[in-house]
């Protein structure tokens, strides 16, 4: 019996997990996350309405794409999306955090400020596939409003929008140069970093029509990479570059992460440590307040989510746990990335774990 994957075509994180499952050759069936599915499967199993959710053939429920991917990495043979070598693995883990937890900003901006009406129809088609087009639009508008409502708390507003667009266009230009030379981030095999980036760059920034037009016009090689990622031709194929090489074309992408996301995550970490100190027996909330962030010289405020710190803990733990020679190689590479001190000197006083679909103190 195949595993059951509950998700939807317009969902960012469904796109991430699906691309991975297809490359890994996992035998799964995708089930649309209709209103009924949320009520009868997702909420009873996970405790809240969220996608994607995987129910394995053994009946185990997995939520969070990172845990879904790690489950199949551990239980399925064949090549891995985690490189073995220190620099490549570190870069892959960092790129996952950048895609998952930062590029949500341009993804949400372009979706809701360029594709709003179209997206309502899509939300309706997922929630109630059997309903008429008119009914779907009503349902979709209601459901979509919740997601549109996330834009201001993600820091998307009149002041920040020009900077978000300038940053996204510069990122596309950097990635276009990269994908002119390489099929994936680190060679001819996709890594966990590619899966982090594909979430925002597929469902919102490629598949939403107005956003897709922008990507194809400004960065056709990035669009080509999206197509390779989501239309898997040969599962389990490809290799990472030899000798732990990191293409120089990834340096500007890492520098953008270090300049934009890392200072914001440090503020989030400091706020979370203070919160955890003052709230010892309280369940961890989705956000511990609002924190400043800067993009292209413009400062905004957005919610500070502890979840992003759980994701960042992965590259932090990996980097700090490296043995001497490997750590030296990783550090030498990081010294060529402007702003990487924000990562190497990162302080996280309160560790986190993700258990039974919830963040807990680690
Ligand atoms: N980090 C999670 C995020 C899942 C997520 O945020 N999914 C979105 C749809 S793409 C959602 O269902 N959001 C509703 C919510 O979290 O309340 C993952 O990797 O699975």
Short description, anyone?
With 362 residues, this protein is of the alpha+beta class. It has helices spanning 12-24, 35-46, 65-75, 86-101, 104-114, 116-127, 133-148, 150-153, 161-179, 192-207, 209-218, 220-230, 251-278, 306-320, 324-334, 341-344; strands at residues 3-7, 28-32, 53-55, 61-63, 290-295, 298-303, 352-355, 358-361. The chain has 3 domains: 3-75, Glutaredoxin (3-Layer(aba) Sandwich); 87-244, Glutathione S-transferase Yfyf (Class Pi), Chain A, domain 2; 248-361, no CATH class.
| Class from secondary-structure proportions | alpha+beta
**Element order: H for helix, E for strand:** EHEHEEHHHHHHHHHHHEEHHHEE
DSSP strand tally? 8
Shape: globular
Bound molecules: glutathione
Count of domain modules: 3
What is the fold-level CATH name, i.e. the topology of the largest domain?
Glutathione S-transferase Yfyf (Class Pi), Chain A, domain 2
Parts with pLDDT < 50 across at least 5 consecutive residues: none
Biggest sheet statistics? 4 strands, mixed
Tell me which CATH architecture of the largest domain applies here.
Up-down Bundle
Report the CATH C-level class of the largest domain: Mainly Alpha
Kindly report the spatial arrangement of strands forming the biggest sheet.
Answer: 2-1-3-4
Q: Percent of residues in beta strands? A: 5-15%
Rounded mean pLDDT is 97
Radius of gyration: 20 Å
CA-to-CA gap between the ends? 35 Å
Helix content: 55-70%
Number of helices: 16
